[in-house]
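User: My collaborator sent over this chain with a note saying "see what the structure looks like." That's all I know about it. Can you take a look?
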Amino acid sequence: MKHLYLLLFFYAWQFCGAQNRNPALDINRANIWRFGTTSSFGANDVPGLDFSNGTPVVINSGNNPPAHGATSISDDNGLQLYGGYQSIFDRTDNPLLNAGVVGDSGWIGIGPSNIAIPMPKSPNLIYYFSAQVTLKYTVVDMSLNNGMGQAILRNVQLEQYPVESKLAAVHHCNGSDVWIVGHRWETNTFYAYLLTDTGIITIPIVTSIGPVANAAGTFQGGEIKFSPNGKKLVFASFGAAPSLPVLFDFDKSTGSISNPLPLQLDTGVGAASFSPDNSKLYTCSGEGYIRQYDLNAGSAMDIVNSRRTIVKAFMSFSPMQIGRDGKIYVAIQGLPHSRYMAVIHKPNELDTLCQPEIYAVYLNGAKGYPKSLMNTIESFFYTGSSAYPCYGDTLTDILTISNRDGIMIRAHPNPFSDYTIIDVTGISSEEEVAYQLYDLLGREYPAQVTENNVWNGKQLHFYKARLPTGVYLLTVKTTHQSQAVKLTIL
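Assistant: Without extra context I'll predict from the sequence alone. Here is the result:
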């Protein structure tokens, strides 16, 4: 019997990498941007960009500006919904049915405080996250209200601690699930929640690392931004005092953040963006600078010292975002400049070869400074190989050894040092389940598991207890089938 389990382990290992999907297949989700505000009070010309044909076309529609914390989501047929720090609008610029006020009423988040994310494998369900005082989410079913969408779950609180108005998202290394990462107020603590095809995992991965934000107790804006390949994360924060952006490594298998690298001190750095090929980092400031860092410069100190000023102008820049055409778009503050957008035409190139242009896109008289240009999943812009790279073998795919449809098992976090949560779906919550745990030598160990019934199966808490560190294979058995998942204990 032990040989069977080791064989299952081998095949599960092989299939994990092969079944990773490329999140850029969903690039149409980021086709249409809505941001900024009208040219004048009451005008029906809220600006946006439509990338559906590759080259962006300026669109102006409606008088409901998403303003602070702008986000939007599209599908193959066009815009589905958009919104800001308190309101969600449908594609006809009307308030989304049953959505009400999202987030915390009365709070104006200066930064990318909202993000709309499709539920993996359920394209009609949109999770709308809001980081304003606390982290909350609203679920929208786009199949309702004649395809206009309707909120079916409102303002569910995830993070009870005070949070900054900064949210970022990137795909898990399996190319399907999505990490949502934020930051707690007056701490150095990041939290990472995972959205899977069974819903949001309500226990976050928490990493306390890097400088304490808002240490003086005063509000600071800024943003968190991922590289398209999910390997890097930058934390930019601005306030009354000069600030320095901090670069981190991100493990998109586990959701953990490591290796903080403070970059150069600057004034008012409130936004950042990585180049599509992940080799350059750009920052912009309210002092009129756009800077570039070469992430391939060499050592950590070489990266810090690689900073180049590619734009110095008498205006304020913030925020910035990659488009599906591979260019980086930058909002400009203050009239008359805010009627335009700056563009970095070739962001993969060094220094001014990246071709920055200040007055690159005219917004037809509307104003494009919304304090959040377009917050979306950065891995939509991944330009690498056909498979999204997976670092580590976690959340493994499951091999079914019966003829009937198999159960699916998902472990998170994995690796882990204390306990992991294991979702078992595809079975009845009343079905009896047995568990067996083996190491790589086929030796059986006691499995300390607590079991909870959920609507789509079971949720297990698997505890390390006195198990030695190492790699294990946990098998889940029902009357008709048996499946296995690899667990790594730190």
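A starting point for your reply to your collaborator: Confidence is low (pLDDT under 50) at residues 1-19, 391-405.
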